[in-house]
Amino acid sequence: MEAEGVIVVRELDLKKDLLEVEDLERRCEVGNSGKISLFTDLHGDPISRVRHSPAFLMLVAETAKEKEIVGLIRGCIKTVTCGKKLSRNGKINTNELIKPVPVYTKLAYILGLRVSPSHRRMGIGLKLVRQMEKWFGENGAEYSYMATENDNLASVKLFTDKCGYSKFRTPSILVNPVFAHRLRLSDKVTVIRLSPSDAESLYRKRFSTTEFFPRDIDSVLNNRLSLGTFLALPRGSYSADTWPGSDRFLSDPPESWAVVSVWNCKEVFTLEVRGASLAARALAKTTRIVDRALPFLKLPSVPELFRPFGGHFLYGLGGEGRSAGKMVTVLCAHAHNLAKELGCGVVATEVSNREPLKSGIPHWKWLSCDEDLWCIKRLGEDYSDGSVGDWTKSPPGLSIFVDPREV
Question: What region holds the N-acetyltransferase domain (predicted)?
Fold first, then answer.
């Protein structure tokens, strides 16, 4: 049965559609099988997860006759790094240091495709994707990508078999609980909070050639949801009082250092674990009681995940030097303590499977995802820069930059 002719796709009318959209989201949440599942509450703002992007759109699909909303999709567009090339700043001088510079492309992102369980296998998902891609093309996007769980076979099949997407990257989502006690930071490391302008300078000079790096990184760092950028250094190198600024720091950095920024997802959405047995809930509660009573033992405890909880997302993670991994661990502990102060249940990040600093990120395996699947599609025939060619066919690099505005 086809949806053509009986389904109308239109832009979301927030005031008119809110209650129906929220109901559809609830009915589409994974978890009806009786297994443990994760539910999301968008706080009455269905576009909250894309509204901070430079350009965004949400579409709904409704029946032409009954005017019932039976599907929805969100999309956003930004400019990101898709590769790099060498530059001499326009000068021809063999003695001049040649450095890589980013090659940018206009990239679209699809998020939150939902189709009512009662209206599946009618072509509604495909119709929503095609309509969103039309908007992408009208706004100059050269590529479109989406993320899904590797085992979400229906989603993978729709995008790869019917929509022309190809499997592209498989980053890891790493999630760590927030304990009842603060974590101790190493006394061999100093953590400095950078100003947004200092952070922007550091990111542009060291990480702008990282795949998916947003050209408007300044907008991300200055967003009200960005809680700060933190730099870890060997104690004795610099302090908050002696910090010379990113430009001077990068001209003569210490042997090892690391950086990370923190995004407040709690203001965008909350999560809740459902489907856990009474025994599992009781065990989780017991770990919290013991953890609070004997914090010096540093026993692992399960935070209250069975009612709505918020989280912080770590982005822009990077560093240099043989001790950079240990510095990342300190930054994660610092981020944990910040999350505890603000009442969050978890701290999460997403990194390339090949990320050299991945081993320094503490996480619980049962809360994390080893392979998130990103699929990509080229929307146009022309390339913005011939030095990269078709990005969809490029091999993965060591790192990726995950934009917190799309979490």
Answer: 7-186
